[in-house]
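Data deposition worksheet. Section B asks for the primary sequence of the deposited chain exactly as it was used as input, without tags or linkers unless they were present during the calculation. Section C holds the resulting structure in token form. Section D is free text for depositor observations; keep each observation to a single sentence. Incomplete worksheets are returned to the depositor.
Section A, Depositor: J.P.
Section B:
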Amino acid sequence: MDLAILSFAGEDRLLVGKPIAEWDVAPLLRLMWEQWNEVFRKSLGQAERSLVSELRDHRNNWAHQQAFSSDDADRALDSAQRLLTAVSASQADEVGKLKMELRRLIFEEQGRTERRRATGAAVESQVTGSLKPWREVVNPHQDVASGRYQLAEFAADLWQVRIGEGTDEYREPAEFFRRTYLTDSLRQLLIGATQRLTGQGSDPVVQLQTNFGGGKTHSMLALYHLFSGTAAGELLGIGDLLHEAGVSELPRVNRVVIVGNKVSPGNPVVKSDGTVVRTIWGELAWQLGEEAGGIQEAKRAFQRVQADDERATSPGDVLRELMNDYGPCLILIDEWVAYARQLHDDADLPGGSFETHFTFAQALTESAKAARQCMLVISLPRVR
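Section C:
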């Protein structure tokens, strides 16, 4: 990589001797494009290369002072966020916030336009017979009726909920179930999880595989909130669900949340007490202990996989021991493919190589099956 940068910089007199951190976005994108086969395709895919090409066009249009529509700006921000996420750049969240703010402004402008139209002409009902117009039957939610609706509020984010952020609709268990329709498939998932975590059997490993926007993250949030410690009587529809599952009350469950595009295999996480966690299995052990007894218990749980975390080797049967010692436990892994795309065969990443993760995935699923009261849920995008 260093040789590629030196060779590239030597062709541009403006970049000679200039640290890469001070480069403009144009040469950075050009570097990725021109050195793709030699460097970047080892960790990124064709989708990311398309993003590089698209962002180069956006940057050139901006440099030549071409006009941008709201849709153009939204597309540019979305592509930038996706590329930054793919390379585990911390700026991805900042760009995401800009995108959400732009969408909020667009929606507010659309709302003002609709209100102007409404005041310009009275709406005449064309419905005949006894059927009432829909506007007399359907009452929009207060945020929609008042014009305070934000598109960002309807993007489920499991990691945001894990760290206590986001809107009440996703963060608060009672509000989440009040606004969630329990479909047959979601009911069966929750019933199966309840039975598994109360020792009545059911599937120990569940793979959620749907198209983009198919409800994988929403299903994981339902599981996360079901075992949040909130009484079943406070969760709409859960009382009947427990009766169907043959359970009188919800168990106390230790929950683990790992979101692939929020964890970087190249950047270890430093916990509040100074502990350095490098791998997914290190994060899993830490969260199990933290859920069970706070920071001190988290340290004890992590110490059991610390050697494997430092060497980036799969911990093997220690996973099953942790699941039993900290059970019942629910392990949710979202966007694992986004994490795996950043791995390669060389053993130079703190998070481990692709082959190591392949071994870890097998050990994780086998451990979940062998553990007494553990449920592992993994989301995978469906590839057509």
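Section D:
The chain has two domains: 2-66, 158-381.
The longest helix spans residues 91-120.
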